[in-house]
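User: I've been going back and forth on whether these two constructs are worth ordering. Before I decide, could you fold them both?

Assistant: Sure. I'll take them in the order you sent them. The first construct and its structure tokens:
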Amino acid sequence: MPPAKRTYHLSISTEALDADPELLGIISAAGVTDVWIAGFLYGHWYFSLEKIRPWRERIEKHGMAAHVINVSLGHPGDSLGSSSGQVPLAPPRHWKMAVLPDGHKYCGTSLHDPATAENCEAMRQIQAAGVKRVFLDDDFRLARSPGMIGGCFCPEHKKAFLQRTGYGETQWSELLEAVGRRQLTPVLRAWVEYTCHQLTACFRAQQKAAPHVQLGTMAMYFGAEKAGIRLTDYADVPARVGETMFSDNEFGRLKGKTDELFSVLFHRRFIRPELAYSETTAYPANRLSARNMAAKLVISTISDVRNTMYMSGLTAFPREHWRTLAPAMKRHAKLHATLAGHAPQGPLKHYWGESSRYVGDDNPYSLFLALGVPFEIRGTPAADGFTFLSDADARTVEQFGSVGTRFVARPQSGLFGGIRPMPESLAELFALKRELAPQLERTPYVEGEIPVVCAWYPTAQAVLLWNPTEQPQELTLRHGSLRRSVRIDGLDVALLEGIG
């Protein structure tokens, strides 16, 4: 079997390529292998296949593969950042708007006829043009934004849901109340499953319309069932994992970094590494520095996401970024080759449960990832270590009974007695680290109280350390009687091998 390979992709528009024709040579020299061109946008062929064809030919002449990205349903707001300002921001008028539980309407992330039919026709045209691979952008979802319980609450969808389930007006009122309370009742579970069925059916229809095209999708930040994204339905197709820290203000925060890492690790439970793509996005295009964009590569390396997808809407991020990205890409490809196929392990447990996926607000308890203590990803609660819970999971974790792990959650009313309440702060978490240190004789960890992500891959006999701060840090890794010191520049990483 050939060794696992890290690949680099760029999503861009013909509009951006027209503005900078020399960009193809720059990205090819940097190591980009695939270019994805914006195509069918929520009912509009603004970038027609006739416009796309000559750019596909130029991309291939530069030694890169050319593919298409569609935005199937649209976004409730400008998420594309067109430099010309001419790209339509909403679907055409014959597409219906979405309705929130309170009756308010908005454009985008809503699925009514004829959206599926028109997307299928676009896929047939794309296949006829010879395109072999298409991604559906992250607006392929049925929630307006992360953290929302999605679905369209219009009369048409209400009628279809009640007919499907056999429920009546009483249950519909109960559903609206449960959505407001974020309570996973039987009727809310049925609504979420109904919403997932709609979105999956739309995806399957587009696959069927163009059977010779490999179709992939985007999971959005913490994308899961409440957004209509039943992740198990996309296990065998390319999928982009959810990120959202698109600017320096967002990614510059420590919790911004740990939240993003948490989301990607969650999605990797469902997506095979060779089919996993990042969402390494700057938006607006000039709001994420080259240094922070390079730092985002670490998240894919830690979580074994084999394909990096750079994005910045329809406008390219500054071409000067590639001077920083090119060497970082080569370095992470080498690091990734060592860690690919190996899973991080440790006493701190990453868990995102059913309540988070169905009704949670997508605010994970994530700062523990920066304690310098190894962690592992769990689909169910572990039998040991410390498991950190979201507010939604903490409210329902008593269903697991005594499983061995020690649960930790932010203080809130009604916490189950088996949960240790702990504010999500570095001061509280470092105190927990001091308590835990005597039990770490067989586990490598970073001494002291400096924020650092410590990913341990015992089957690769390696530890990857990520310094998420802006300043260089002198760090000491302890493993039993062994101590290894390393200096890591701000936002940079170090791989320590020979640590089993």
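The second construct, handled the same way:
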Amino acid sequence: MKIFLQNKKNYLFLLTIFIGIMIWNSPIPSGITAQSWHLFAIFITTILGIIVKPLPMGAMALLGLTVTIITKTLTFTQAFSGFSNSVVWLVVFAFFIAKGFVITGLGKRIAFFFVGALGKSTLGLAYGIVATDLILSPTIPSLTARIGGIIYPIVKGLAEAFDSHPNSPSSKRIGAYLIQVAAQGAAVTAALFLTSMAANPLIAEIAANEGVKITWGSWALASIVPGIVSLTLIPLILYKIYPPQIKRPEKAREFSKKQLKDLGKMSPKEWIMAATFALLITLWIAGPTVGLKAAAVTLLGLAILLLTNVLKWEDILSEKEAWGTLIWFSTLITLASFLNELGLTKWFSEWVVQYVSGYSWSLGLLGLSLIYFYSHYFFASGVAHVGAMYAPFLIVSIALGTPPLLAALFFGFLSSLFSSLTQYSSGPAPILYGSGYVPIGTWWKLGFILSAVNFTIWVLVGGLWWKFLGIW
């Protein structure tokens, strides 16, 4: 017990459990069942546990699942129903495929190609980093893997090639600027595709519970115009408000050429990986037409990589993040689905709507979206934020009269865009901040400015584009 209490996080864990017990034993509001209220208590406790992280996310989710069974809130079959959900496996399979980019070296090759092609200026170099992230994002749902595993090492190498070092005045030569470009760009690329951030398929599944169907193609079509505008403006705005000292990085192209030379010619496995990537994009877009779900398409891609020996079974078994995602993702889908099925989310929306019913749906959506967006200052995980707030905010927006698909997509896009706010707001943020190039005060200042830029772009440009598409 003494060892347990020495860890400060364990005090938060005990507080979390206490909150859950208090909710469980509190008077049940009229209009809902004891079963739905007890499930709500377990859900809140699980989400708080994911936020304070006394244990890894998967372990906390598994504990929540255990409690639902032991207390007979859900049957064993009900509790594990989320594990058969196709959306869960879409993400898990995508994690496995992402490993192919790393193992074959294709991810690095793409990055160095764009650095060499666009690296005549520092601004061009920034666009090269963003372009690399954009190309890789559809098949790498882990921001940590994509930014931390592929983009960050290249940014770090470029900075050091120009004698730009962390925790020193030289950081402003080029390193600090490129680090911020990588961080801010990742927030946008995460919003562009259903498979570019782990929480996006969870969003689609929650929306489906409310009768809103989101496909890979419909998500990409709705996001592409405001997303490209954001990706075009962010490096330029950063260049103006946080300028690098080096404007013409002559060494960048030499650096990329040397790295490409070291990589050599594309190997057969890289060609297979590239062809599989192209096939996946094609079938994800054409899926609804040919009758293939996104999860089935992704499984096909994984099968190709296994059959061609691009990936080995040992690679699949060693992908810890994918297996962890299977646990927490399935659990959150289970809890969210049964909260909806048992009527608690409907009760909540009706309770909230009576206080905001005097507002038009457009004004209500704007106010709710601002609250949803900037409340991310209190979260260190996009998944935790989505799990706690997406469903109720979506339901209330729809109840106000917001077109359902518009509300589902807009809150979905914001669920990635808010990851640019702080040095702890997404998986790769601590890695990039920990590099030592950008002070914390500067990070928060830039995060707030660019969050406002992104929010404005997605409201105005996105709103016009969605109007053109007939979403509202």
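Notes on the second construct follow. The longest helix spans residues 440-469. The chain is about 75% helix and 0% strand.
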